[in-house]
Amino acid sequence: MVTAVAQRLAAQRREINDTLARLSLSSENLQQVKDKMRVELERGLRKDSHSTASVKMLPSFVYRTPNGTERGKYLALDLGGTNFRVLVVKIRSGIRKSVRMYNKIYAIPLEIMQGTGEELFDHIVQCISDFLDYMGMKNTRLPLGFTFSFPCRQTGIDKGSLVSWTKGFKATDCEGNDVVEMLREAIKRRNEFDLDIVAVVNDTVGTMMTCAYEDPKCEIGLIAGTGSNVCYMEEMRNIEMVEGDEGQMCVNTEWGGFGENDCIEDIRTRFDREVDEGSLNNGKQRFEKMTSGMYLGEIVRQILIDLTRRGLLFRVNTPQVYKNIKCVTPLSPPSDRLALLQVRAILQQLGLDSTCDDSIIVKEVCGTVSRRAAQLCGAGMAAIVDKIRENRGRNQMNITVGVDGTLYKLHPHFSRILKDTVKALAPQCDVEFVLSEDGSGKGAALITAVIDKYLYAMRLSDETLMDIMKRFRRELGNGLCSDTNPTATVKMLPTFVRSIPDGSEKGDFIALDLGGSAFRILRVKVSHEKKQTVQMESQIYDTPEDIIHGSGTRLFDHVAECLGDFMEKQNIKDKKLSVGFTFSFPCAQTKLNESYLLTWTKRFKASGVEGMDIVTLLNKAIKKRGVDIMAVVNDTVGTMMTCGFDDQRCEVGIIIGTGTNACYMEELRHIDLVEGDEGRMCINTEWGAFGDDGMLEDIRTEFDREIDRGSLNPGKQLFEKMVSGMYIGELVRLILVKMAKEGFLFEGRITPELLTKGKFETKHVSSIEKSKEGLTKAKDILGRLGMEPSADDCIAVQHICTIVSHRSANLIAATLGGILSRLKDNKGNPRLRTTVGIDGSLYKMHPYARRLHKTVRRLVPESDVRFLLSESGSSKGAAMVTAVAYRLLTRVV
Ligand code: BG6
Ligand code: BG6
Ligand code: GLC
Ligand code: GLC
């Protein structure tokens, strides 16, 4: 009797052992898995076999791991693991190098994971919206890195079409579509906030980057979680699906698909097939279904059902309990008594009464299934590390794998078995596994930062702008005060213009307008029949480069010649007319018609003029042609006067054109350099020189420095060089070149034209910015430079243009804010009501004005500012000044 029972038990034991033996892999089995994995890796990389390879080897367009110079504030999404997370990641570089993260986990209900694509992305955007509210960041347009943990065919860092859903997702209308585009559209549909989606990355890539931030040897990312996957840094020359042979790129292997071509059928069991058949993606992700957290419990369940059916387990339970055995967490090996009690408790929760033997068997099953998973991952990893080692032609290699995933983190033995297997199968590699503590969102933000490295510094928060506004206000004060004026960068030049037009001006004048993008001569007739009216006729004259860069005498002779020509054409050769001279450069004036050029700016550099009175120089050149130079005005002053003619409230004039500058009406009692305390005088700030003392170094970028080095006046007009029309196009060009060199644009190709200074103009920037036709424009403009930009390149170029011109508008808003807040304080009113006269080609371009107005209103909320575009240039204003000067003069005479 006893022997019969013992024999039966022994037979049962053998049956159980036989069943589990099929799940136990020998070292030959594992060696074969490694070898086959290697074959599939190579097939995935090669063009001719890529389409049929089961390991897809998807290019990630991540070319390098972080180097610690990344910084900025980013938003990240982390979708596809156990949790959906929205994060904000703040990265600091330098000695204070650090990463701070805030995140919130959101649920994705099953009906959304498996509903329509639109519902899924709307849900994601709703979670982002909630998060931005929670963080109080709705109004800041942040760059976003998107960890999307599914296979995506990428054509750029911010473009990826979903190959197929894996794991528990199955939303309709997504496969084959670009996930970034779907996210953008959902953001548009919600129409509540704006984000720059800079990068889409797989979780393996995000994990590798997270770990590489701490350990530069980390060149592999492994996820052993809900799903299973690996990425690593591959040599570009081996990635046939991407052009170019230089350097490296991270490849997302998608090894979960390994075996889809039946190459591991010899080790798959009927349990694996059952799991596969019951899954959302039958036939797919076969390796993943043997190795990852989403399926291990299911394999165990299939085995337990089988054993129960065969009368080897749970004999006290009825067959209905089969369905209760849902998910069994893999547990520790049988030796440990506590664990056995745990097994019983878990089974109890599932409504299963177990005997002691039952728990031992269940535990063995779990151990076998998870051991196999860890060994398979180890074999795959051995193939990867050996490939990297061979790529580098090395006998021995040290390398770090960044790992994440609940299976790796929570399972008591998975990581040890994995490591042992790698050691056994790849003895020439010393592989260290580092757990990613911060998830892949940090890595996604770092990738975003690597790309944004060039642009991040150009995005200025309102906080920074406020700070710049304060600095500028301090400079205004320094420039006005006689003690500090000599060292002040913002020169605050008195103009001797004491009021805006009062409507009584009249006469017939000539106006010269030199220093903007065009040299103009005009005749301005101001008459007074009932109403003051102004008639103007003008002609544009060339100012060839050899003249503006030649001798001063030649320059003024040229001006005089053009003037002679104009007078002849106007038939006023013999008339004695007063001339108003808009001379758009910084001049120290002692009176209206005595004006010493301090320094050339912008494109001008004629010799022998700096330090001279330009009225004397011009008079010499025109040899008393019967004209009298009554007044010299800066273009900002001319513009303020022109606008003041229509709007009495106008007390600020700004130019955002070739150069940039502003003037405004200051209280005379604050102007130390001019005697008298009553009334006001217009001050030409010459704000273009703001920052020449290093005050703006924290916000200047490497591109700003390069522009400065290549300019006619290095070290000078540093603010102007960050914002004005003469430099914006060149700034964009430098960024394009740099990004192309680093492989982020144009597949790394650069034509000699694009390398030529000045080939990318400011007017191009604004036409590319237009949302509709901008992308076609980008293609045209770059095409003319011999480039062949892809659709992604065009989007990136548009992005760069927007950021550069946005920065310009923001910075000008800050300095203008400084002037406005000073005006408000001067007046002592709680609210400022004023008009700003504006001119300049950059201001008139596409969305520039709107951006400027919006930012000014945010920075100086206690003001009502009217922005008035000067329709007729600065000359009408110059004529007004001349009229006043003439009246004063004739009164004196
Ligand atoms: C998280 C990462 O830590 O791990 C995710 O941030 C990743 O990007 C996940 O997908 C993988 O693990 P699991 O177990 O959540 O699938
Ligand atoms: C013109 C003014 O309208 O604008 C000039 O008449 C001024 O005096 C110019 O210099 C500034 O803009 P830009 O773009 O020509 O430098
Ligand atoms: C699945 C996905 C893969 C992801 C992995 C880990 O295998 O296809 O993209 O990396 O799960 O989350
Ligand atoms: C430069 C000049 C300044 C002028 C401005 C706009 O900054 O120095 O005088 O107003 O350009 O043309």
Automatic annotation (TrEMBL):
It is a peripheral membrane protein. GO terms for biological process: glucose metabolic process; glycolytic process; intracellular glucose homeostasis. SUPFAM superfamilies: Actin-like ATPase domain. It comes from the Eukaryota. It catalyses: a D-hexose + ATP = a D-hexose 6-phosphate + ADP + H(+); D-glucose + ATP = D-glucose 6-phosphate + ADP + H(+). Its main location: cytoplasm. Residues 16-213, 451-644 form the Hexokinase N-terminal domain. GO terms for cellular component: cytosol; mitochondrial membrane. PANTHER family: HEXOKINASE, HEXOKINASE HKDC1. This is hexokinase. It comes from Hucho hucho. The lineage of its organism: Eukaryota, Metazoa, Chordata, Craniata, Vertebrata.
